[in-house]
Amino acid sequence: MSTEILLGYIPLLSIVFSSMGISFVFKDFIADLVASMVIKKIKDIKVGNRIKISSGGAMTKGDIMEIGLLRTTVMEVGDGERLPSVRTGRLIKVPNYMLISSPVMIYGDTIIDEVVSYVPRPFPDSQMLVDSMKDAIVSSGHGLIEVGLYQSKEDKLVVHGVFEVKTSEMSDERSRILLEFLARSQQIVAPPAQPKSEQQGSIQLQENKIALPLQNIENPRS
């Protein structure tokens, strides 16, 4: 049975059940049941996929954990600037009919993302900035697409990196790459690593140090 035929059954069944006086809830039940057959038939949506659903002006993004007869369980994933590509721990039960009646974005094995840094004046060497962003992306284990430089309205230099990352490994990679870029371009200075012996000695000194009240501190002039 083709997908078009299955989809055509949904409004037909709704008319039949309406004429029989069956409740609206039961019609939704049948629609979700038929939708599950369509999903299994076309196999575009399957467990492990990351999807984004647009319905009623709201966006739902997440990883498919289970496809049931009536509902699909999705693990919510943050989108945009809010917890970008990080699982929130919330499970969403999506009616199966929504997956075939609403626009659904299906993520592939890899996705393209971007990282942006704003550099104020005085501008460092432009080639150094480009090379630092490229090195930050590659050292993070992602595929480098391109790096560009732009001038912002606030008179800042915009360093724009585009990279490819596996969807299964995607989290807030922008922050990691940005931190690496800032260190490589010497806009931030990482503290030098101390040998373990010095670290242990520093910890021991801190533990032995006692803060005294001001009135108990001896006057050096006496």
What does this structure look like?
This protein has 2 domains: 3-106, SH3 type barrels, CATH 2.30.30; 110-184, 2-Layer Sandwich (Alpha-Beta Plaits), CATH 3.30.70.380. The chain is 36% helix and 32% strand. The chain has helices at residues 3-19, 24-42, 96-101, 126-139, 173-184, 196-208, and strands spanning 50-55, 58-67, 71-79, 82-95, 104-106, 110-119, 143-151, 157-166. Strands 4-3-2-1-5 form a 5-stranded antiparallel β-sheet. Helix 1 (3-19) runs antiparallel to helix 2 (24-42) and helix 4 packs across helix 5 (173-184). The N and C termini lie far apart (100 Å).
CATH topology of the largest domain: SH3 type barrels
Q: Label the structural class.
A: alpha+beta
CATH architecture tag of the largest domain: Roll
Helix fraction bin: 25-40%
| Large-scale geometry | elongated
Strand order of the largest sheet: 4-3-2-1-5
List low-pLDDT spans: 202-222
User: Can you give the mean pLDDT?
Assistant: 78
CATH class of the largest domain: Mainly Beta
How many helices in DSSP terms?
6
Radius of gyration: 28 Å
Element string (H = helix, E = strand): HHEEEEHEEHEEHH
Distance between the termini: 100 Å
Tell me the β content: 25-35%
Q: What is the strand tally?
A: 8
